[in-house]
Amino acid sequence: MLEQHAGNQSAWTLASEPGCPLLEGLGLPAGTELIGSLQAAGGEAEASGALAWAGQTASLTLAAAMHQSEATLQVKLSHALPALRAVPPEALLTVQLGWEAGHRLGLELQVGACELQGSGELHLDRGLQWQVLAQSSCEALQALGVPGRVNSSGTVAVNSVAADTWVLVAVDNSTLQGLLILKATESQQEVELLLTHGPAQPSPSGLPARVLLELATESHGPGYRRSLRVALDSKQVSEELMFTQQPEHISLDYTLEHNIPVLRTLWVEDKLGLQSTSGTSWMGTTPANPPTTNLPAPPSLHVDVFSPPQSPGASQLRDFHGGFIP
Q: What is the rounded distance in angstroms from the CA atom of residue 128 to the CA atom of residue 154?
């Protein structure tokens, strides 16, 4: 064994002799040499080793660097050994980490003619933001159904009254995008969900290319309002409800709209509406201060159910009036 030291660098050489059962069991003949070195300085280090005999070599190198805001690790293997014929003659792995202005990760692997790359970023300063990318030029993996490129990004933002989430996933030429918005205050609540995928062509799975859901509610004093909209591609259904309740008056207004052929076969018009009011009034004169002898009129009920006209000038209004006698 021969060893040398020079400052921050060390090197050594090992040579085998005849009659070593361990090396012979590994198929390494006498005269095999193992050469290695190690050096480190200023946050960087490198270690390498090489195995050689009868003109055949194999080497492995590890290099690492650590700085204030990033770190790098690189591993390289090369050989020309028949015993390692299942391993490509050249392989290189690089890993990078960064933590300034977010967290960053990078991976790169080269094995023979195949190259794999991956990267990712994560930011936490303004909510949650991320981006991930993976791509491959390896035809052998693509023949097994592994996509050549996968990209994903998204954001999540949350505060005291709202939450906003957006996600994008792209696999080769296909994309899937999702949006979710939630808002809530003392008098208002909103939910919005949107899913889209492309390219815009019929999906083998039968899934719609666009899905939309919108729901909003609002209440102020005696009034309440709710609206709902659901859409699958070009088909959609929407409804709106308004309700008001006061001591002497109650009203209800409901509207339904759609463009779905299946509902038309069930005699559901494209637009339907319901209006209902009921209330109590005073009989007799009503001065500034009504006398206690005035009696309330019986409660009344008024209901209108309407749909679009079937022909110009034709009305589809159905009017119901009712009175209740105590």
A: 8
* Strand ranges (E), 124-201: 128-136, 149-158, 162-171, 174-184, 188-198
The backbone torsions φ and ψ at residue 17, rounded to the nearest 5 degrees and listed phi first, read -115, 160
Each residue's pLDDT, cut to its tens digit, for the chain (326 residues) gives 556 666 678 888 877 766 677 766 666 666 778 889 999 888 899 999 998 877 788 899 999 999 989 999 999 999 887 777 778 889 999 999 998 878 999 999 998 888 999 999 999 887 899 999 999 988 888 888 889 999 999 999 998 899 999 999 999 988 999 999 999 998 999 999 999 988 765 555 567 889 999 999 999 888 999 999 999 999 999 999 999 988 888 899 999 998 988 887 877 778 888 888 886 544 444 444 555 545 455 555 555 666 655 444 444 444 444 443 33
Task: Name the residue with tokens 């090369």.
Answer: 78
Q: 238: which 2 tokens?
A: 């929407």
Please list the alpha-helical segments (H only) found in 79-162. 139-143
Which residues are paired to 226 by β-bridges? 217, 241
Tell me whether strands 114-123 and 128-136 are parallel, antiparallel or unpaired: antiparallel
Looking at the DSSP bridge assignments, the partners of residue 62 are: 47, 75
CA distance 74 to 126: 32
- For the record, the structure tokens of 77 come out as 């293997």
Q: 210-220 and 188-198: which strand pairing?
A: antiparallel
CA distance 234 to 211: 10
With beta carbons less than 8 A apart as the criterion, state whether 226 and 216 touch: yes
Q: How far apart are CA 57 and CA 46, in angstroms?
A: 20
